[in-house]
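Would you mind writing out a protein's amino acid sequence and the numbers that encode its backbone to help me picture the idea?
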Amino acid sequence: MPIATRRNTPEQLAAIDLGSNSFHMVVARLVQGELQIQEGLSEKVQLGAGLDEQNRITDDARARALECLGRFAQRIRGVPAGGVRVVGTNALRMARNAREFIRDAEAVLGQDIEIVAGREEARLIYLGVSHSLADQPGRRLVVDIGGGSTELIIGERFEALETESLHMGCVSFTRRFFPQGQCTDKAFDKAITTARQEVLSLEAAYRRAGWQQAVGASGSVKAIAQVCQENGWSDGDITLDGLQRARRKLVKAGTVAEAELKGLRDDRMPIFPAGLAILTGIFEQLGITSMAVSGGALREGVLYDLLGRLDHEDVRERSIGVLMSRYHVDQAQAQRVCDTAMDFLGQVATAWGLEAEEYADALRWGAQLHEVGLSVSHSQFHKHGAYLIENSDLAGFSRQTQQVLATLVRAHRRKVPMAALEALPQEDQASTLKLCLLLRLAARLHHARSDALLPGLVLEGTDQQLALRFPEGWLAEHPLTQADLEQEQEYFAGAGVALTVS
C-alpha cells in the first residue's frame, strides 16, 4: 500500500545502522508514496570485537569505523536535510567511551547519531521485516541475530506486540565458544544450551502470544539460509534438520575453513558457528520447525520510522500518551503547562538558539510528563518522574533523548540540578538548561491548577538573562504567583541565569 506523504517529505531518505559486527547503509527514494531502495552498502567493521576488557572501543576499531563512515558520508551528501537517521546498537550501548566515539563519528558523517535501547532496536527490526513481506493476517515471530545481541519480536501486520533483546550475539558467542574457529560437539552443546537459557526467560510469554510464521532477519540468519540452500539441506526456508546438518559438517571438519561450506562468504566464516548455535538454541527452545528469511531488517525499519516522523505519524507521540495514561497524569494540567511553555519557547527561540524542531519536541514532551512521578509519591515527585522516564522502554526514543527528557522533568522544580545537566553530552547541556527554565516558569505560573487564562505575557531572553513582563497590576492581584516567581529568581541565579519580573 502506498504511504501517504506530505509535501515537505524529502524524496530521498537514508538510514545507517552502526551494528556490533557490520555497519549498514540504505538509501531509498519516495516514488508515488512508496519507498524504493536505490542502494545498500555494508562493511564489516567489528566494533563489538573491538571492545577491550574495560569495554572501551580500541583505537583500531575506532579507525575502522570512522573510515567506513567517511565512505558513507560521501553517499549521503545529496540527501536533503532531515532525510537521514543514524542509529547505534549493542556495541555502542556497552562501550564506556561511546560518547567520545559518537562525537567523532558525527563530525565525519555530518549527522546526529542515536543509541537505541534493545527493545527499541527490536521494534525497528520488526518494522523493517513487516514492510519487506506480504501483508497477511496472523502473527509473526521475528528473530534477528546481531553481533552483540539477539532480538525476538512477535508482531501482527506492522505492529510489534512483544519485543525482547537478549544479551547474546555472534561476536560474543564466537569469543566464548568458538575461538580460532574451532568447532567441536562440546562447544556446540555449551553454546546451544546457553542460547536456550537466554530464551527461557521469554518462552512462556511468547508461547502465550503465539505466532503462525517464524521469520529470520539480518546477516547471520541470511548466511545460514544461504549455506543450507546451496548445500542441499533446505529449499529456501531454514529447518532444524538443516541446522543440524550444518553443525555435523563443521564438527567433522574441525574448523569453519576446513568445512568448505558452499555459499558461505569469507567475511562470515569467523562468526558462522556462533550464529548457527544461537539459531539452533532458539529453534529448540521455542519449538520452531521452519523459518522464512526476510530481506528487511533494522535499517529498513529505521527508514520507515523516519518516514512516519516526517509525515507526522510519530510513534514517539503515542509513547508519551501511553506513559501519561499508565501513570495517570492530570491531562488538563499537563496541557496548561505545555501551552504556556510552548508560547514561551516561541518568544525566545531565536534569541536563545532553540529554533530546531527537536527543541520544541523535547519541551512539549517534558511538559506533558512533568508530573508523571506523582503516581509514585508527591514527595520528590520530580525525581521519581525522571527515573521513570529514563528507565522506561519508550518506543521511538533514543537513549539520548530519554536522558534529556528525564533531566527536564528532574529540573522543573526545586533547585536546578546542575550535576544532572552536566551528565548530559556537552552539546546538549546549554539547550537543555534553557528548556528547563522555560518549563519551570510555565509550571510555576500554573501552580494553582486553574482553568483561568493567564494574561498576555512577554518573555525576552539573552544568554544569561530572562525577562518576564506582566500587565500592570496583575502580579499585585496574585501574590502567591509573585512569591513563586521570587523563589524562582533564586533558583535561576543558582543556574547562572538572571530572571527579572516586572
Notes: The first helix runs from residue 59 to 76. The chain has 20 helices and 14 strands. Residues 1-7 have pLDDT under 50 and may be disordered. The chain has three domains: 12-116+301-307, 134-293, 314-454.
